[in-house]
Amino acid sequence: MLTFTIRRLVLAVPTLLFISLVIFGLLMLAPGDPMAQVPLTVPPEVKQKMREALGLGDAWYVQYWKWLRQFFWVEPRVLIDAIFGTEFAAGELRALSWQTRSPIMDIVVQRIPQTLWVVGTAYVVAVLIALPIGIYSAYRQYSLFDNVGTFVSMIGFSVPPFFSGVLVIVIFSVQLGWFPSIYDTTHKVTDWDSFMIQLRQMVLPVMVLALQITAQIARFMRASMLDNLNQDYVRTARAKGLGERVVVLSHVLRNSMIPVVTVIALGIPSIFGGAIITEQVFKVNGIGQLLITAIQANDLPMVQTLTFIFAVLIVMFNLIADVLYGILDPRIRYD
Amino acid sequence: MTDPNTPQQIEPGPGEVQAADVMKVQVPNTPPRSQWAEVWSQFRHHKGAMAGGIIFLLIVLVVFAGPLFWPIEATFIDIRARNQGPSLAHPFGTDQLGRDMLARMMAGGQVSLSVGITAMLLALFLGSLVGVMAGYFKWLDNLLMRTTDLFLALPLLPLLLVMVLLFREPLNAAFGPETGIFILIVVAIGVTSWMPTARIVRGDVLALKEREFVLAARSIGTTDSKMILRHILPNVISPIVVSATLGIANAIITESALSFLGLGFPPDFPTWGRLLFDAVDYMQQNPERVILPGVAISLTVLTVNYLGDGLRDALDPRIRGR
After folding, report:
1. pLDDT under 50 in chain A at which residues?
2. CA B280 to CA B259: how far, in whole Å?
3. From the centroid of its chain, how far is CA B165?
4. Looking at the predicted complex, does its ipTM rise above 0.95?
5. B147 and chain A: CB distance < 8 Å anywhere?
6. What domains can you pick out in chain B, each with its CATH number?
């Protein structure tokens, strides 16, 4: 198992390098010019100097190398400095955003908590709802509950978040006035009342994200339970005289959870992708919204770093899913 | 062979059990049904899939044939009749410039469905090509499957946004604003959604390659290209059909998401996502303008998903009744 994990970790390095190269190559083709906003009275040779100061005069591989060095070598040391108060990264040049002229990672670190709060809560809520629905639907296949549950999860699967988001705003904020339509990220939780305000503003975005995730996981849980319910070992367990509760919840459930756990792990990075839209709808200023504003402002270093962070998340959770599968199901261990 | 309707008389043997009597009764008197008739009869019994298929065909029909019967143009501006609710003259109301929403919905549906179907075809072509190549030629397998894994690890929505940002201007200049963005969005969705198809097709081709009829075909000297076209492709058509339906749903949602984020088609060119995006500002006064395009997108995707579900069940006997 350990060698398998290490081999996968080693394989992740070329994957990430390739992805970073793809992203970098795409952005090298970008038509945008960071000097477009500089007044026309500035002479061209000065503009050229400004471009070179931004590091744009170098050959592409030099720029790529500098970017990799900033991402993998400078930024981790800045992080260590910030935690332990050391001086490792003193005097190093950090990757700057063209929009704000401040280090990209500082902005990202400011934005991540909002995303994690909303997305993380939604994911936990969705998993907690989806698993019982999936288990019960499979156990009572073709019952009324199963038919309704399958239909609702099909709807949750088909309604895109940019519509369900707008729809819940129309219903719950405009018509009923129960919840705010905009997520206020400057709000601080200090006492019970402010905690309730925080809770109320989280309801709508969490609901929209959770609907989508619940649908996917419940479908998967149901299919996986159905695969196992007809197996011979289930008949054996019943023949031994075990109660239905023990048969379903400990024998069948434990075996059906193997693929579901990996699907849950694989879903986490794609939720960050889906959260881009939800964040835009509810005006949550998380990293998804940061990416959209960076794209609109032609802020290439920011776009590059954010896209790469998404890629790192995907590769990381793929790895976690693979390792989890190996731990849960000894039959597929590769060593 | 003799005519199956008039069974041969077989002399009963000396034993007590009259095996020949059994054979006389059991002779089938209907011709064997083809695989597609079998699939169709399975498909008809899937209520959700039938309903989904009929509603999807209706949507396609209304969207493409509707403008022939509806007198108002999608781009006609009647500024006096702006921001109206549903009425007899404008069943879906009008927008902030007084354009008829029914006509705009039909025009938007044409674009959304065309993008969905074209992008699906592109993704299907790429996916089948990669899948068949990887499954059939052993020396290509490792390379192609690692490429597929790499593509699966790419963050797709951010990359789509970046692609639209980068190539919109040059393509607009080359093909005009509408064709340019159409090509861009179709290609962008196509090259980022072929991976699941490739994986499924490769798995099936690997299993097919071990079958006897492939060995037989090879032994009479069938060339690789003939082998793929005549023997392999017809046998992997069912996973391809299923991923086609899922591909349409995926492409329609992605196109609408891009339009919704303001990175899709230009503002005067309606698509369902764009109509939804434009209506968000008027959500309080005219909520139906948000709901109609949203329902259109969701209904199309829902019916296509049900269609895919039914097709998968009908084409794969092992998972029937799930």
Report:
1. none
2. 13
3. 27
4. no
5. no
6. 105-320 (1.10.3720.10)
